[in-house]
Amino acid sequence: VQLVESGGGLVQPGGSLRLSCATSGFTFSSYHMSWYRQAPGKTRELVARITSAGDSNNYADSVKGRFTISRDNAKNTVHLQMNSLKPEDTSVYYCNARKMWSDYWGQGTQVTVSS
């Protein structure tokens, strides 16, 4: 099983980034996919989640209206479009796949929002 995040980096406040998570080794289309983030000294928090079919999603209040999660079941990939980024969005962002007792994580990608 592999989950590989990409697309992180340094961006100015108000800017945008698009994170991607390429997966392999499991039946992607049957897993709910999520993005989490963890800042230094803080607990990991859920940012956004999308159901296996892509027909429902939910977001942390702090990112509603700015972030959009999407998935491509044909390419086994999940994305997180992040707009209007704020310094408080600075974190390591992790991709997660979950289905009943199965729970897989990527290695994370750093997002830094700073001028």
Structure commentary:
The protein has 115 residues and is mainly beta. 0% of the residues lie in helices and 54% in strands. The protein has no helices and 11 strands. It has strands at residues 2-6, 9-11, 17-24, 32-38, 45-50, 57-59, 67-72, 77-82, 91-99, 102-105, 109-113. The strands form 2 sheets. Strands 2, 4, 5, 6, 9, 10 and 11 form a 7-stranded mixed β-sheet that branches. A hairpin with a 4-residue loop joins β7 (67-72) and β8 (77-82). It starts with a strand and ends with a strand. 30% of the residues are buried. The model has no long low-confidence stretch (mean pLDDT 97).
What is the chain-wise order of helices and strands? EEEEEEEEEEE
Distance between the termini: 37 Å
Mean pLDDT, as a whole number? 97
Unreliable spans are none
What level of helicity do the residues show?
under 10%
Structural class: mainly beta
Q: Which geometry do the CA atoms define?
A: globular
Number of helices: 0
Q: What does the radius of gyration come to?
A: 13 Å
Number of E-type strands:
11
